[in-house]
Structure formats: structure tokens, C-alpha cells
Design a protein that fits this description.
The protein has 455 residues and is an alpha+beta fold. It has two domains: 8-125 and 169-211, 3-Layer(aba) Sandwich (Rossmann fold); 247-448, no CATH class. 40% of the residues lie in helices and 17% in strands. The strands form four sheets. It has a seven-stranded mixed beta sheet, sandwiched between helices. The protein has a five-stranded antiparallel beta sheet with strand order 7-8-11-10-9. The chain is globular and about 75 Å long. The two termini are 28 Å apart. Bound molecules: adenosine-5'-triphosphate. Adenosine-5'-triphosphate binds at residues 25-27, 29-32, 55-57, 105, 123-125, 129, 193, 196.
Length: 455
């Protein structure tokens, strides 16, 4: 645990690159208020020209949330820190509210950062938050000591949002009590969020169980998290290595796995590689669960098969193991919208002249008309994969457009690494990078903090 000594801010922030500025996410609670003041102190001393913008999200869910945002704005004005309040004005769902609020919060924080040309967001998650997260996940999947429970690594020290902004959590090793001591020593107050002590929610219940003298339990949880984080990082590195050695992409949307992947001797990494690839090809944000991944891997070891998992057809034949998006459930023809994700797999950007463009899957009949140089890959598989690629309705209806790739002028469709496209924890940098290289997704922005091997 770190004490709030005079060099606390150096210890917390000196490994982070603030050249391109930072957005500090400040709710007005103790942790993020301390984060802001410590960061300001650090930047004043070591990077005075770095841009700092404090952002408060007013979720509009509690009475008093606007006043809390105003209190943060006042503190910032007193300290010469730029501040912005962003209001979550969208429709509030009746179920899954915390998740929706979190989603909206990161979207708004990222848009504030983008507007200022800042690529880094810092949050005030603490060691206490980390312990709570790990204990909640443990209670859910009961996998204490089972390092295959990826969630037991807790929150990553850095997470890439939307493949663009890095969310960094510099306080993950610092206890809330230390931050509160720091604020009290500076005579700075903070807001108490009543939902943090409302024990009808899971996190406050875990928090209450950890309160008081239960330091040992918290320390145990943190040790478990750091061990799991190391193992998870290593699993990612091993899976990335296998992806580079055994996966190729013979056509857009078609991934080929060399059957040698089944006998490398590192089944854990091979199954992890398989799960990440299945989610990518199927355009699914979540990996297929471990049990299904293991079962599929076992069946592949037994011989040729054709199966579907995570919207991905797995076709093991003499020429190799092929993965492609299944034909069912593709998006219907719809007006193309710039800068959106199509089918969870393709990032659509429109050319200037694309008003009124309709986008639809190419479809089997049109794919049949494409002339394909299949090489060693079965042409039927290449066609089946291309049939699930987006094309513009205009191109589709033009019988002259029959050559090469289905995506034609009017828009660009860049592949995305579906399971990591929204949130990429730094633990998974290595497999994300390997898959991006495989499918031609944009490269990743550099990690703004040292000390974490990205592979
Ligand atoms: N309304 C918000 N506006 C800006 N950032 C927020 C907001 N809510 C949460 N955050 C960010 O996410 C982090 C973790 O959120 P969490 O809900 O655990 O914090 P909190 O209890 O609201 O406040 P704090 O962490 O400041 O005590 C915060 O430290 C802060 O950086």
C-alpha cells in the first residue's frame, strides 16, 4: 500500500506518458478527487504544458447529481483546471442500469477526450475497487485458484476503449483510506454516493464485508488478482504466438488454422487462441465460454467436422480448419451510416459521395459470380466467406461488378477484432495485436504506460 507522502504523485504517475494530455474522470467522490489533485500536482512539476481536462458525467439518475458536478467544477476553477460536465441524456433502461450507465460514461468520456485531441483517460479505481471486483467475480464463478477464470485478474491497469483511447487506472495499487487521508490533510471534501452503501446492490455488500478489520481478506484478493494477471498476460502471449504460427487468412472473412495447432502441447493457449478467433470471425463481443471452447477443441482433435460456435462455422477438412461467419442472422439491407460497426465485424466509413447508400451482405448468389483464384483453399469456402461480407446495394445490383473483393466504392469496411473492439484490457494486448495483423484491422495505439508487456 502506498502512503500519501510528498512523492506519492510521482510514484503514481511517473510511468505514464502525458505528452498528449489527459482526461481525468472525476465523479466528485474521494478517489477521483484525490486522483485529480495528485495528477495536477504531478503535471505542474513534470509536464506543465500537458493538457489536463477534468470531466464529470452527470448520469441524471440521482437527485443531487447536477450539484455534485457543479462542486467538481468549482474545485477545478479554484485550482485552475479545465472542467467539463457531460450529461447522459439518453433513454435509461429499466434493467441493467449500472451496465448501461457505465457504457454511457465511457462513451461520453471518450467523446470529451476526442474533442480535445486527447488519447488518454485516467480513472480513480483503487485497490479497494480491485479487491471488490475480484471477490464478486470469484463469488459468481467460484473459481478461486482457478487461473483459467480470466476475470480473476480483475481490472487491467490500462484498457483501450474503441480501439482509440487508453483508459489508465493509476490508483489500482492504492487504498481508498490513503487517498481519503490525503484529501483530509489538504482540507478537501468529497461527495458520498449513497448507492455505494446501498446493500441491495452486490458491490456495496462486498464492500461492507471488506470494511473494518478485514484487511487480510482484501490483501488475499489483491494477491490473487496480481497472480491471475500475470498468468492471463502469459496466456495471451502464448495464444498470440500460436495465432502467428498457425493462423492465416486466405480470403476476407475466411481464417485458416493449420491442424498442427491441435498438437502443440499447449492446449490452454490453443483453446484461448481458438476462442478469440471464433469471436472475431463471428463478430461477437464476448468469447465463447471456456467449456464450449474446450469441447470444440476436443472434437477437432478427434477429426474432421463441421460445427458452429459464436456465429462461426468451423469446418475441418483435409485442406485445414476453416473459420467463417455463418450465413444465418446477417444484417438485412440498411442505409449505411458513417463510422459504425456492421455485424460486429466491419468498421464502415463512408466516402463523401455515399449519401443514400444501402449496405447488405453480398449473398451466396452474387458470391458465386465472383471469379476467385482459390489456390489451395477450397473455392466453395472462399465464396461462402465472401457471401457474408458487406457490399453496397448499388454495387450488388450492378452486374458488371463481379471481380475481386465485394466491398466496392462508396464505403470502406475495415475488419475489427470483435471481442476487443470496445474494451481491450492490457492483459489481452498480445492476442489482439496478433489477430489485428491476421485480419487486417488497424494497428493499436501505443500503450501510454510502461511496465506491461504487450508482446
Ligand atoms: N459520474 C462520473 N463522472 C466521471 N467519472 C466517473 C463517474 N463515475 C465514476 N467515474 C470514474 O470511474 C471511477 C470508478 O467509479 P466508481 O463508481 O467506483 O467511483 P465513485 O464511487 O463514483 O467515485 P470515486 O471513485 O471518485 O470515489 C471513478 O474513480 C472515476 O474516475
Amino acid at each position: 500500500m502506498l502512503d500519501p507522502g510528498p512523492d506519492l504523485s510521482t510514484r503514481l504517475f511517473s510511468h505514464i506518458d502525458f505528452t498528449n494530455g489527459a482526461v481525468a474522470a472525476v465523479s466528485g467522490g474521494s478517489d477521483s478527487t484525490a486522483l485529480l489533485l495528485l495528477l495536477k500536482h504531478h503535471l505542474d512539476r513534470s509536464a506543465p504544458s500537458a493538457k489536463l481536462l477534468a470531466v464529470t458525467i452527470d448520469h441524471g439518475l440521482r437527485q443531487g447529481s447536477a450539484a455534485e458536478a457543479q462542486a467538481v467544477a468549482k474545485l477545478c476553477a479554484e485550482r485552475g483546471i479545465a472542467h467539463r460536465t457531460m450529461v447522459w441524456s439518453g433513454r435509461k433502461p429499466s434493467t441493467g442500469l449500472p451496465a448501461a450507465a457505465r457504457e454511457a460514461r465511457y462513451r461520453l468520456l471518450a467523446s470529451a477526450a476526442r474533442a480535445e485531441g486527447i488519447g488518454l483517460i485516467v480513472t480513480g479505481h483503487t485497490a479497494d475497487d480491485q479487491a471488490e471486483t475480484v471477490l464478486m467475480r470469484h463469488a459468481r464463478d467460484g473459481s478461486l485458484g482457478n487461473v483459467q477464470g480470466r476475470g480473476l485478474a480483475g481490472m487491467a491497469p490500462a484498457t483501450l476503449y474503441d480501439w482509440r483511447e487508453w483508459i489508465v487506472r493509476p490508483l489500482l495499487g492504492t487504498r481508498r483510506a490513503a487517498l481519503r487521508d490525503f484529501l483530509q490533510s489538504k482540507h478537501v471534501g468529497w461527495a458520498e454516493d449513497p448507492t455505494n452503501s446501498d446493500e441491495s446492490f452486490e458491490r456495496p455488500r462486498v464492500r461492507a464485508a471488506l470494511a473494518g478489520d478485514n484487511i487480510r481478506r482484501m490483501d488475499e484478493a489483491l494477491v490473487m488478482a496480481s497472480q491471475a494477471a500475470i498468468e492471463r498476460g502469459q496466456l495471451g502471449l502464448d495464444a498470440a504466438d500460436l495465432i502467428r504460427r498457425f493462423a492465416s487468412q486466405p480470403a476476407t472473412g475466411l481464417v485458416r488454422l493449420d491442424p498442427q495447432l491441435l498438437s502443440t502441447g499447449d492446449e490452454r493457449a490453443a483453446i484461448y487462441a481458438l476462442r478469440t478467433l471464433l469471436a472475431t470471425v463471428g463478430g461477437i463481443a464476448f468469447l465463447p465460454d471456456q467449456a464450449r471452447g474446450e469441447a470444440l477443441f476436443g472434437r477437432l482433435k478427434a477429426g474432421f467436422l463441421c460445427a458452429t460456435l459464436s456465429r462461426t462455422v468451423v469446418d475441418f477438412r483435409r485442406a485445414g480448419i476453416f473459420l467463417r461467419r455463418e450465413a444465418r442472422g446477417l444484417p438485412p439491407a440498411a442505409a449505411a451510416i458513417d463510422n459504425t460497426i456492421w455485424d460486429g465485424r466491419r468498421h464502415i466509413t463512408l466516402n463523401d459521395s455515399s449519401a443514400g447508400l444501402l449496405i447488405a451482405p453480398l449473398g451466396a448468389a452474387a458470391a458465386k459470380r465472383l471469379s476467385i483464384d482459390a489456390g489451395e483453399t477450397p473455392a466453395s469456402l472462399m465464396r461462402a466467406a465472401l457471401a457474408a461480407e458487406p457490399t453496397s446495394r448499388q454495387a450488388f445490383e450492378n452486374p458488371d461488378v463481379q471481380q475481386g473483393e465485394p466491398a466496392s466504392s462508396g464505403f470502406d469496411a475495415r475488419p475489427v477484432v470483435a471481442p476487443f473492439a470496445r474494451f481491450l484490457p492490457s492483459f489481452d494486448l498480445a492476442p489482439a495485436r496478433a489477430i489485428a495483423g491476421l485480419i487486417g484491422a488497424p494497428s493499436l495505439p501505443a500503450l501510454p504506460c510502461g511496465g506491461h508487456s504487450a508482446g
